[in-house]
Every structure is written in structure tokens, then in C-alpha cells.
Write a structure and sequence with these properties.
By secondary structure, the chain is of the alpha/beta class. It is 47% helix and 6% strand. The N and C termini lie far apart (66 Å).
């Protein structure tokens, strides 16, 4: 009897999974579902990402009647070995466009004695598909977004109606105490959020309202596909739904940039920034990591990250700007800290968003746009609720006072600001002028 392998990676779901449908067809309904626990990726992930991945794998295995096969090791050795054991004619995957993923898949393909079949990707439109009239890729988001919309995407596909999941020896699934992971949890979370997405355009920058979807986490693991989300957003007629779709396009823009510029994971897209003068990480970097800079919005964000593995997007921009332009530390150090700490850590979104804030990426924020951490707090957390939630030393301060404790007698156990923001801003601009 025919058998195929579905090698799951960033697509830990059964619905809207074209690669799985191809595997079912190729195997006449008999599919060995495989996940390779790659030590290179596992060891570089923080506890939050490992915990969510483990919980998501457990959910996927349960949906497969407990027959998900997990093997630990180098995929270039593991996948061919499993393919030989099961005597399959094809291994099916969704294409991976990240630098490491693309290299890994090429190595696996070279080691296999059967076909490696790529179908679909983690994106509505795969990187490299959206091009301008000259056939080149975009470096500016707005024209990319318009072309992305004009290109369009296929509708979501249903889960296979009948699959015989083939048994094979499997390693133990990793332990996890994470709740709310997996395909069904992702769909439940998304459908609940759709009831409030109309407010997204107005509230997306307000960390105190906790009004964002947090779907970046299910998207990271492929517990839901963006086509599914876009299909349901298209039925809604609101500014919020349109703004949300634009953010999904930004995610795909980042993936497109990284696919064409693999070094952008850790090197600036704008080469002149190679000459930028940065300071080495020191005790101020440690204070930033620990949420003890003396700037309440920055500290609230970093403490939210440490405690939950998540940070509101507006606050991510503020803490990134503070590291690069107030502390004058290279963005790559912040990007690595985020990748270790975030539950939704995605190399393309993480690195390219850091580059946006640092002014060295494509369509980047102008370098002279230096976020004032106090002003950002007063504007986007106007009553101080977000700060008081994550910085308990400031809970005795009412309203806006939480953003400027030094004006209200300070707070026991809370540090003084570690830099003078006005002076730090001028120094950042001086260093920028030196590379222009």
C-alpha cells in the first residue's frame, strides 16, 4: 500500500493545510505525520516558545488519534531515515522561506531517496510572488501592500475527510504546562476576536486596553493559516478589519524581505548603518532586559515580556527605540533578547521590525524619529493602567502620575531614570549624522 509522510513544521494544524491534502492524495489516504525536534532550533528557543510548541504538538497529536511521530535530531538524517523505514514515495512539506529553514530543506532533499514535495507556505502569498512591473521585489510597504491585495490568494481548504495515520516509533512528546495552544484553541481565539475587530483601528496602539488579538502566537506555529483569517476578514466591512488585514500584509512583507536578504536577520539592510557607532551591552543593557530603566512604559513592557512571553506592539516599538537611541546599543542585541523571550518569536517579523525602529531597514522609520518613552506612555496609556499592571512599585500613583514618578515623590524600590532622554536623543542624532 502507498504511504506518504507529512512533515509538520510551521503548520501544526489539519485544516487549511494544502501540503497535508497532497500527502493524503499521494499516500492513498495513508499518511505518516512526522515532527522533527531539531536540537539547533530547540536549544535556541526560550522557555516560552518551547512550552508553546510542546503544547501545540500535543494538541496536534490528539487530533491525529495520538499518532503524531516525533523524532529528535538533525532533520537531514532523521527525515530520510523515517522515509526509509516507512518505505514512502514522497515527503510533503509547506515551503519554508526563512534562511535556516530553506537550507535545511535543501539538505533534506539531497539526502532523501524519494521526492520532497513543497506545497503552500505559512503565508497567504509566498515570498517572491509579489513583484512590481519591472519584475523586482518591493522595498517600500505601501506599494507592496497594494500589489499584495491585487495579487490575491486562494481560499482556505478543508481538512482531509479521511486519513489513516500510520504508526511508527516515536520519541516522547516534550512536557508542557501551557494552556490555549493548538488548532482548536487558535480558531476559538480568532473567532472571539472577530467580534471586536471593528475596534482594532482605534485601539491597536493602546496597551492599557489589551485589545489586540495576540494571533501572532498561533500564526508563528501555524495553528491557523493567514488565508483563513483573511477569508473571514473579507466578510466584514469595517476600518478595523481593513487595518488588521494590513498588519497581516506587513508580516508577509517582512518575510519577503528576509527571503531576498537572508543576512537581514542580523545585519542592516541599509549598508551605511554598518558604520554606525554603537555601545557594547553593559549594565544599562541588563537594566533594560530586567525592566529597571526608570522609564515606566519601557519597564512595563519588558516585565510583561519576562512574565508572559508577549509584549504589546506599540510598546515593542518604544522599548526597541529606547535600546537603540537612548542606550545606543545595536539592535541585534535586542532582537536576540526578544527571540529568547517571546512566545511568538518569528525571525522575519522580529528582525525586520527591529530594523524598522533602528532606521536601517526597508521602508524604515526615519532615524531622527526617536520615541520619547514618557510621551508615548502619556499618549497611549493615558491613565497609567498598563504601567501599574506590570510595575507594582508604581501602583500607588494615580492616573498619569505613574509615567513620571520622579515628579510625585518617586517610588520605593523603583529606580531613577538611567539616562537623560533629551541628551541621549541628541547623541543618537549626532551618531547618525556621522554616517550620512
Amino acid at each position: 500500500m502507498n504511504t506518504s509522510i507529512m512533515w509538520f513544521r510551521r503548520d501544526l494544524r489539519l485544516a487549511d493545510n494544502p501540503a497535508l491534502l497532497d500527502a493524503v492524495t499521494a499516500g492513498d489516504g495513508r499518511v505518516l505525520g512526522l515532527f522533527v525536534l531539531d536540537p539547533l532550533l530547540w536549544d535556541r528557543s526560550g522557555d516560552r516558545r518551547r512550552g508553546h510548541l510542546a503544547a501545540s504538538l500535543r494538541s496536534l497529536s490528539a487530533a491525529m488519534n495520538g499518532r503524531l511521530v516525533v523524532r529528535t535530531g538533525d532533520p537531514a538524517a532523521v527525515v530520510p531515515a523515517v522515509a526509509a523505514e516507512a518505505d514512502v514515495a514522497s515527503v510533503h512539506i509547506a515551503a519554508d522561506y526563512a534562511p535556516y529553514g530553506e537550507r535545511r530543506d535543501q539538505e533534506v532533499e539531497g539526502a532523501l531517496s524519494c521526492l520532497l514535495v513543497r506545497t503552500g507556505s505559512p503565508y497567504a502569498i509566498a515570498p517572491g510572488r509579489v513583484r512590481n512591473q519591472q519584475g523586482n521585489s518591493y522595498l517600500v510597504f505601501t506599494p507592496y501592500f497594494k500589489a499584495w491585495q491585487a495579487h490575491g490568494w486562494r481560499g482556505p481548504v478543508a481538512a482531509p475527510s479521511k486519513v489513516t495515520w500510520v504508526r511508527a516509533d516515536s520519541d516522547e512528546l516534550p512536557d508542557s504546562d501551557v494552556d490555549g495552544a493548538g488548532e482548536q484553541a487558535a480558531l476559538k481565539q480568532w473567532h472571539a476576536y472577530l467580534d471586536t475587530v471593528r475596534e482594532y483601528a482605534d485601539h491597536r496602539d493602546r496597551p492599557d486596553l489589551d485589545s489586540t488579538s495576540r494571533m501572532s502566537i498561533p500564526l508563528k506555529y501555524g495553528e491557523i493559516h493567514p488565508r483563513t483569517m483573511l477569508s473571514e476578514l473579507s466578510r466584514l466591512r469595517s476600518d478595523g478589519a481593513q487595518a488588521y488585514a494590513r498588519e497581516l500584509a506587513w508580516r508577509e512583507f517582512c518575510a519577503d524581505l528576509l527571503a531576498r536578504n537572508p543576512d537581514a536577520a542580523w545585519k542592516p539592510l541599509r549598508s551605511e548603518f554598518e558604520r554606525m557607532q554603537y555601545d557594547e551591552p553593559d549594565e544599562q543593557f541588563d537594566a533594560w532586559c530586567a525592566g529597571r530603566t526608570g522609564f515606566p512604559l519601557v519597564d512595563a513592557g519588558m516585565r510583561q515580556l519576562a512574565e508572559s512571553g508577549f509584549m504589546h506592539n506599540r510598546v515593542r516599538m518604544v522599548v526597541a527605540s529606547f535600546l537603540v537611541k537612548d542606550l545606543h546599543i545595536h539592535w541585534k542585541h535586542g532582537a536576540r533578547w526578544f527571540m529568547q523571550s517571546l512566545r511568538d518569536g518569528d525571525i522575519a517579523s522580529n528582525s525586520l521590525n527591529w530594523q524598522w525602529v533602528a532606521g536601517c531597514g526597508a521602508d524604515a522609520s526615519p532615524y531622527f524619529r526617536v520615541f520619547n518613552p514618557v510621551g508615548q506612555g502619556l499618549k497611549f496609556d493615558p491613565d497609567g493602567a498598563y504601567v501599574r499592571r506590570w510595575v507594582p512599585q508604581l501602583r500607588h500613583l494615580d492616573g498619569k502620575a505613574a509615567h513620571e514618578p520622579w515628579k510625585h515623590g518617586g517610588a520605593e524600590g523603583y529606580p531613577e531614570p538611567i539616562v537623560d532622554h533629551a541628551e541621549a536623543r541628541l547623541e543618537a542624532l549626532r551618531r547618525y549624522e556621522a554616517i550620512r
